[in-house]
Design a protein that fits this description.
The chain is mainly alpha-helical. It is about 80% helix and about 0% strand. It has one domain: Up-down Bundle (Ferritin).
């Protein structure tokens, strides 16, 4: 596989990560009662959608078409969150924990991409990585607040 093909593959993988992140936050917003968290999760979903748009554009600039795959593990994970939430008395804590876990997975995927050759895409990928770190920190703080309460 050429460097060019590897770059496109990496960007498509990050595109999948962003699409699944958007779906995850939309799912979380549907399963939380607190309006402030619904709003926050909707904002995070919108941000992931913007990231996906940027990645699609980069892939197209490289002369390829974006390939958004469907991640069955992400779908299974959302179903597991549904079950946990239905059986729990503290669904806010469960949703926040799962959102944090999703951010940790996304950060690992981005770090892996940043370790490779990204050429002109590096700045965009780095910017997205930094934004995901900030979201993870916000979620971690929210989770601490919920655990203290």
């Amino acid at each position: 596989m050429t460097d060019h093909e590897n770059l496109i593959k990496t960007l498509n993988h990050l595109l999948d990560v962003c699409v699944e992140g958007r779906r995850g936050y939309e799912h979380a917003a549907e399963h939380i009662d607190e309006e402030d968290l619904k709003t926050l999760f909707t904002e995070f979903a919108t941000e992931r959608n913007e990231f996906a748009y940027e990645l699609r554009h980069l892939i197209q600039e490289l002369g390829s078409e974006p390939h958004e795959g469907h991640n069955p593990y992400a779908t299974l994970h959302r179903s597991w969150v549904d079950i946990q939430t239905a059986l729990s008395h503290d669904d806010t804590q469960i949703v926040l924990r799962e959102c944090r876990r999703g951010e940790e997975v996304a950060l690992r995927q981005y770090l892996s991409a940043l370790a490779g050759e990204l050429d002109d895409a590096r700045a965009t990928v780095w910017k997205q990585y930094e934004a995901i770190k900030i979201v993870k920190e916000k979620i971690t703080q929210l989770l601490k607040n919920v655990e203290i309460a």
